[in-house]
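Single-chain item
Fold in token form
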Amino acid sequence: MTSIQLLTFYCVFVLTASLVGGWIPLLVRLTHTRLQVATSFVAGLMLGVGVLHLLPHALYQFGSIDRTVRWVLGGFVVMFFIQRFFHFHHHDVPDEAPSATGELGGACPHDREHRLRDAHHGPQTSLVEKSAHKLSWVGAAAGLSLHTLINGVALAASVEAEAQGHPAASLAGLGTFLVIFLHKPFDALIIGTLMTTGGWSKAARHLVNALFALAIPTGVVLFYLTAAQLSHETNLFLGAALAFAAGTFLCIATSDLLPELQFHAHDRVKLSVALITGLLLAILVDRFEHHGHDHSQEPPSPEKAG
């Protein structure tokens, strides 16, 4: 299977995941705990892929630690400011969702914790409800689209880097694909939830979700268009794309994981297990990926390292 065929296969699955994420608010009502456990799992996978997959590939392409970490830092900072100014990246459910009460009808630990915080700081609202008042779905969609375009570039770069010297690599870029595939429903869910809160029709939500789903293949096309213009510096371009993507993955993963330390003490065991499971999957994926090169060898263009 060639890189283009593999990327087409990946894009079809990601498109499906995005569409499913947009339909979730219409089909089911998520609980807070289940959503947070899923978020921890995906964040662990994203952290592992960023550090164990994208970063080593970027270093191999650059042949320079300094240049690699500069692009990692750039990716982290860019994603940080995208989140800061668009306020799009949160995974929560409205307070009236089933998570507000325990399965037996009593208050769950999360509900009790929120009531204790209310006593000291006044009534609290969910992040979804805050976003609905502070930011329209258009702003969220814009921020998520930028984030997703970067993911599309990362997916293409990962496939190309891992298929180098092995064009028929059947599982090149698997780790990056899994991160995007599992994270995409959350992103589509955010837009769908904000549009639902804003009173938009189902037809409008389906249309916006379908357009948003095209962001990944658009990022893939953008990667190849740029690569064609920089064909004389392929290794440097690949290194930059991979390191930048690693920085964005680290930013997204930490923004999901760090709030758990303060606000999710009641579910610390579940969330910790989910995190470790995601990390272990990232390690396991490495055993099934077909690498076209050995990271212990010299990079393809050491004379270009700076």
Notes: The first helix runs from residue 3 to 27. Confidence is low (pLDDT under 50) at residues 94-129, 302-306. The two ends are 34 Å apart (CA to CA). Residues 3-290 form one domain.
